[in-house]
Design brief:
Layout: H1 7-12, H2 17-26, E1 37-43, E2 46-52, E3 61-66, E4 69-74, E5 95-100, E6 105-113, E7 116-123, H3 139-148
Antiparallel strand pairs: 1-2, 2-7, 3-4, 4-5, 6-7
């Protein structure tokens, strides 16, 4: 029951179809649930992705931003001697997790803490694309400008 129906939002929004299509495909993108992750909104234009990477060292993790995606991957380095486990509950298998980034979203940085990888994202909309206020002039003001010109 992880699927969410976004169809009510389609009726009340204009121009957000791409956003809701991306949200629809998040749960059904063919990826496994490993490793688990959270996506958190930390401010108006700030986000935090937290990925559980227990058992991985920092040099075994990789983060790349390419083609509108953030790709997080991890691969354990080969050890000289594989331990003999009685029980192995901590999965350290290789993974690649892809996150589709919205327009003008970029990664600021990343850090590991207590077996979690935190990736900070920010949305920076260029000034030219930000909304501008358009002044409304009355017909009298327009005719006065025409007469004085």
């Amino acid at each position: 029951m992880r699927n969410t129906d976004f169809s009510p939002f389609y009726r009340s929004t204009v121009g957000y179809d791409r956003l809701f299509n991306l949200l629809d495909t998040v749960a059904d993108n063919g990826q496994t649930g490993y490793p688990p992750y959270n996506i958190e909104k930390t401010g108006d234009d700030a986000y935090l992705i937290t990925v559980a990477v227990a058992g991985f060292a920092e040099d075994e993790l990789s983060i790349e931003a390419r083609d509108g995606q953030l790709v997080v991957s991890g691969k354990k380095s080969a050890t000289e001697r594989e331990p003999s486990y009685l029980h192995r509950g901590i999965a350290t298998r290789a993974f690649e997790k892809r996150f589709q980034l919205a327009d003008h979203v970029r990664a600021l940085g990343a850090r590991t803490e207590n077996g979690l990888l935190h990736i900070e994202l920010v949305r920076e909309v260029p000034e030219a694309l930000k909304p501008r206020r358009v002044e409304i002039q009355s017909a009298k003001a327009l005719s006065a400008q025409t007469v004085s010109a």
